[in-house]
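Cross-posted from the bioinformatics board.
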Amino acid sequence: MKWKNLFKVAFKSLLKARLRSLLTTLGIIIGVSAVIIMVAIGEGAQREIEKQINSLGSNLIVIFPGASRTGGVSRGAGSFNRFTMDDVKKIEEESLLIKAISPIIRSGGQVIGGGTNWNTAIYGVSPSYLEIRDWELEYGEIFTERDERARSKVCVLGSEVAKNLFPNQNPVGEMVRIVNTPFKVIGVLKEKGQTAMGASNDDLILAPASTVLYRLSGGRYIHFIYASAASIERIAEAQEELRQIMREAHRLNPGDDDDFTIRNQTEITEAASESSEVMTMLLGAVAAVSLIVGGIGIMNIMLVSVTERTREIGIRLSIGARGSDILIQFLLEAIVLSLLGGLLGILISIGTIYALNEYSTLAAELNLFVVAIAFVFSGFVGIFFGFYPARKASALNPIDALRYE
Amino acid sequence: MKKVIETIQLTKTFFLGDVKVHALRGINLTIYEGEFVAIMGSSGSGKSTLMNLLGCLDQPTSGEYYLNGVITSKMTKNEYANIRNQNIGFVFQGFNLLPRTSALENVELPLLYDRHGRVKNPIQQAKDALKKVGLADRMDHEPNQLSGGQQQRVAIARALVNSPSLILADEPTGNLDSVTSVDVFSLFQELNDNGITIVIVTHEREFAKYARRIVEVKDGLILDDYEVKNRLNAKEDMARLKHDESVVVVEEKS
């Protein structure tokens, strides 16, 4: 039998049972669209995380206290596992590949101002912090080196804080009390939105590092050091230079492990996207299971169809169809069904992804590779699950098939 | 004259569980080109089994079957399929048309399975076959829109469409009323007059008289084989029946 005729016969049979064909493909439609949509949501989330980490700042290098590897042995307290202003000063003086550096001292508490109060985080940073993070000011200005040396009680409000304490007004020049210490507002940051980890970059107050260190936190220790490499190409070199300076500052002997960890932006991005990649894979795997279930649905219906159409098969055999003609007809029906389901699933998923991006906060990114894989896979589902019923149909004896009631 | 069918000691044995059933116990039958043979017998006589063997729908247990001089007993399944497609037109008691499929498509079906590339225009060929059986105006009708007689005509058209050398009909009028049956037989007689070899299974003696030769089968053997004397003409019977009907209608009116 010619291929053209085989297709004709398969299509006609499917069209004769339109509702059943549609219901049969429903499993594949749902499976394919689930795979594509799940992967799209996963990848959208991943892309979003990467975008936000990249917005941390240009050429960012972060130094955390504590070793990245402890080698199974606790280093114990008393070793240099925290940073001081001396570390920052030493880097500032000796480094050639760093264009800006800022300590971070985290504090927090109740802030009173404008007749109301607000609980927020207070960061002690150096004036170059804005440059490191690529942040901009909405109003006023950032504090200076002189404020830093004088431990001036000045601060820059995040947009969220400014909005809550001084709604609809420019707070520059106003006074706020941070944990009972009066500070003068000299600037307001531009709104930036959420970070990748869900914290707000707007709900915070920046103040000179020395002021926070000595007037608010009452300690000697710095929580992190943020630095900006002179250029993105030399970020690895800068990282190594920082390591050597820090080892010297902490008087580590050769062979000692680092008592700090240095990460650059790329490494942070990788760590974050790795976890979301795992999530994407999980989502895709769950969706793939539904695709297989859809395939079993096709097999189920095709098997029922073989029984139901035994007489039809008998008629075809009696007028000269070969077993292979019947096999190919049923196989083609299964493949056409599953490919049709795949196609509809792709259309539905594209529509859903568009709707998600347009009308919801979820970001979804269509992956054409996954679309192709899902389509090809749905074809294989048709072949795989269609083969057994088709085999069964083709093995019938014309007399037995005709007598079947 | 050319032998269309020749069987030598054809047997067929079925197994129903452990019980052996000898449906055919050695059939020797020769049918020549242009014959119109009626095979008769009571139910269980083996006449349908014989038909299935002659139609290459089933394979004999032993014996030889020559169709157009070619031995078929040792053919493969695919060769059987080819013979069914090319050389034999089979008409069933239950019509066996594809449901929800137009008459034209039903008739076209054997042509779709043609492997010899001799079909140039299957739709035209199917239309011609339907015209031959007088259903030119019913081509788009599906089986459930046709009367029993019309369905059997579609089935006959399907059997004719590949211009086979032999038409086999297994109780073709079994599901039809007597008037329609005569009508179908008139079609068979017309086809036979045009030179097509026809073999029909029937258990009604009056219909068998439309054939030229009667073969009686009993218990898997040929009991009798003779020429029909006083052969009936289905077309004349049909005209008479129609006349009677109109007389009945006129009588009712008066």
